[in-house]
Known about the structure:
Blueprint: E1 9-11, E2 21-23, E3 44-51, H1 54-63, H2 66-74, H3 78-87, H4 105-111, H5 119-132, H6 153-165, H7 169-184, E4 186-188, E5 194-196, H8 208-237, E6 242-247, E7 250-256, H9 260-271, E8 275-277, E9 280-282, E10 286-291, E11 297-300
Antiparallel strand pairs: 1-2, 3-7, 3-10, 4-5, 6-7, 8-9, 10-11
Helix pairs in contact: 1-2, 1-7, 1-8, 3-5, 3-6, 7-8, 8-9
Amino acid sequence: MIRERVYPNIQTHTQATGRWSITDYPTQQLTTDLEGILIPNEGTAWLCHDWDQVELWIQGAQANDTALLDAKKHKWDVHALNTCQAFALPMPPVLVDANGHPDNAGWRATVQWKGKDDIRRSFSKRFVYRILYRGNPQFAGDIPGAKALGLGGPQLVKASRAWLAAHPAIPLFWAKTDAFIHAHGYTVTWAGRKRRTLSRDLSGRISAATCRELSNHLMQGSVADLLNLTVIELLDTMPYLELIGSKHDALKMACPLDKLEESWPVYQKIVQQARLINGHNLTFPGTFQQVNADGSKRSIA
């Protein structure tokens, strides 16, 4: 059945993390090559943004992880750094631009670095998130690139330990979080949203799996809070905007064409404003794009 219009149903209270469930049609499930089948109404354009590495920065702030916070502060190539830490590679001389800086040419040759398409970099991006989700690294062989890199269980465990050795604040944060969960039965995001468990065994203990789930709430739930608060602030400031939907850490808002010029600076300011997380005043850079009614797209500086 071909539809000229779709009317997605956005459910805001179905997921424990705080993320939205979008159904009929599930627009957030469209792959990149199919996203173009949906376009704005005539007379409007979509204001779109995607935050960069937002989960990493939130986890760094919550855990007071100096390595991640320094990477954010100095705008270092965090994915290249994570790759070097996990694979025990030497660090590039210039940490800001591992892929293109001329002073890194010798380093790129030594480690046979292929830039943003380096399979080790692509693998590490997903692998580090798997670590932060507290998944068992031994079973991370399903991450694309693991087989091509010859990474089995022992190698994956070794890479996980190597990365955590460079981020000692992370396991310490997990231990403190677990102790809090056992004592209180819940965790709280930076925005104050609780997630509680009633699952205890006969001795009153909470399982390790439940601790991991509540611990993940501090990262995934915090990102959902950031998105939800941003939507509220955008609509409070510019009530003529319409919510189109979200996908992971990205957002789409419909804007009348006669409001575009005045809306973009306000939209960007709200999306990238500072948030106080565990004593750290963090801003979250975004990538911005305008989608027009004819399907064309324009990057916004």
